[in-house]
Amino acid sequence: MKTRQSVLVILVVLLAQGWAMAKDKNHFVFTSFDPPGSVLTFPIGINNNGLIAGQYNDAAGIIHTFTLKGGNYTVIDVPGAAGTLASAPNNRGQVALGYFNAPDYYTHAAVYSRGRYIYLPDCPGQLNTSPSAINDRGYISGVVWSDNFTIVHSYVWDGKTCDVYDEPASDIHFTNAFAINNRGQIVGQYNTSDGVIHGYLKYRDNYTEITFPGAPNTVALGINNADVIVGLYGNAGPGPYGFAVGSHGYVMWGGVYSTLDYPGAVSSFSTGINDVGQIVGVYHLNYA
Hints:
By secondary structure, this protein is mostly beta strands. The protein has one domain: TolB, C-terminal domain (Neuraminidase). The strands form six sheets. It has a four-stranded antiparallel sheet, with no helix packed on it. It has a four-stranded antiparallel sheet with strand order 3-4-5-6, with no helix packed on it. Strands 7-8-9-10 form a four-stranded antiparallel sheet, with no helix packed on it. β11 and β12 form a beta hairpin.
């Protein structure tokens, strides 16, 4: 499948022999997939039952959200929306959604649960509210942002209140939250004025830097309930999703980082992980 002369498919990895085997690629099993009609596919997360949630662009450029389980795809777009964004699913099969409509295209939040759409209030005072993950307690992580996307904050929704926060080390007010586990640990990204992209782990009011050794930029994209973190590291650049040829995926557990790349890809990264050890992510075979 080609898009802008780039090939993008998705990987699922099973660490069949446990986390200690992470450095041995012989223990990885890779499976590629794309939803029907997709020209650009991006998985967000996978739950313990193997349910994958993600989003894709069709040939007209419209963004759709899908789930995948046992080879069966289900489109779960918010009814009437001009586009729908996905989040990592929880183990109850719920998926938090960001959706937008014409004419303003501001993003709002909803939850897809057993065929029903539950519409959530916007974070107070924010133009755009978009979820990134939902845990088994129903807590949602996500991002809010200004009109021109120059100011980005993260938030946590506990079912009653929206707690907006910034990683304290970000001096330009740019913080993304990408995943939340059942302990309430959140992983994400923050940017600084020197142009560096950093990964972080937030637990309550404590922040821990996530940096792949020697890498110029690191993003933490997923975390499971065993505190295993996945993401990407490499050079920021003109490639899809803001990272250039040579970006890599990684797995981090107990402070030990291991590179996870799809064989033969020019770049790849990992977006989500479940407690079984399955990982979803993206790889590119070439850039034009």
